[in-house]
User: What shape does this take?
Amino acid sequence: MYSATAFNHSYSDSGIFCIHASSHPSHLELERAKMQLQSVLLMNLESRPVVFEDIGRQVLATGTRKEPEYFIQEIAKITSDDIHNIASRMLKSKASVAALGDLKHLPSLKEIDADLVSKEKLRSKRFSLFS
Assistant: This one.
């Protein structure tokens, strides 16, 4: 895998969930990715400030806190069908875009949305979301 990042910000009336990963198609391994996610979760929770932030976010968002073991078990249950279903559902929703700098080449939100749901290899001539 070239890189992988994920973040989630949940609030009572809105939120954002982002996953970014890049890898050559021949190196996509779900079990390895799940193990890495479980490891990162546990390593992050070795820091007291991160634990306190985790507790605060969970309580604010859901009213309760779940132990790390719960998330470890939930990650273990994930299947490739789950990934495809979530990705399809998320790509059907409108994109959120934030940009800074010279924006004259930034496509319109309509173009971005169209390219996210397009299965064609040829996309807008002005930009490419995918290489």
Q: What stands out?
A: The radius of gyration is 18 Å. The chain has a mean pLDDT of 81.
